[in-house]
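Open question from group meeting: does this chain pack into something compact, or does most of it stay loose? Before anyone orders reagents, we agreed to write out a predicted structure and look at it together. Recording both the input and the output here so the notebook holds the full record.
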Amino acid sequence: MDKLRILYVASEINPFLQTTDVADYVRRLPQAMQERGAEIRILVPRFGLINERKNRLHEVVRLSGINITVGDEEKPLIIKVASIPNAKLQVYFIDNDDYFHRKSVFFDKENNFYDDNDERAIFFCKGVLETVKKLGWAPDVVHCNDWMTALIPMYLKTTYRNDPMFKDTKSVFTVHNNAFDYKFDADLMSKAKAIDVSDEALSHLHTADFEGFVKIGCAYADAVVKAEEHCSDSLNQIFNDAPKRVELDEEDEKFSESYYNLYTDLMS
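Structure tokens returned:
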């Protein structure tokens, strides 16, 4: 069997940014898989809290310059890259001046949720897939984490289903307990549209909230896992209703083996 190619997608990763447990999860898992011989790529947003000089980010000009459509607007995509110290792991950062240069993640200084977080998520999800195409690196598995990445499994099953880069790609969606109490505007579904994406494909987003994003990730992923044992009742219900849910043994000694077996089972 050729080297397993795994793409990890998340809103954050240590040591560049940590606001939730996602950052630790996405730091630990890729290294564990790399130690098992897998080939790894990691993509995260370049939020303004990430210090480019300190973390030695630099633009990858050959990957930058694509325009990403969000609703009726097109926004330029900038790709940056850095290495995780003491690990042979590169992290690619999705950047855009309008979406990611503010010095916070999802909330402003008054703790108000940004109105355009839906657009930022859509831009990020589309940007990830276009970046992978430009890299010319066909992943066996795309492992998506938390609500911000939830549209990727759906795009893989619709817009990109006949793309040679993704024709054999499987997706995993991890549910994380990072709910927010905010409803997006009614135009969320129209913003998320792309080629071959119908209203029906986006129907889970009609609630325009956190749970809507999680539901669409669960609906389209080839496997759904849950990172935290303790989640809200509603989040547990969404996970339990997911047709492709997988219960993994995440104890320290079983962590690496459980995920490696999940990925290889998906490929077979």
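Observations to bring back to the group:
The longest strand covers residues 39-45.
Residues 5-267 form a domain with the Rossmann fold fold (CATH 3.40.50.2000).
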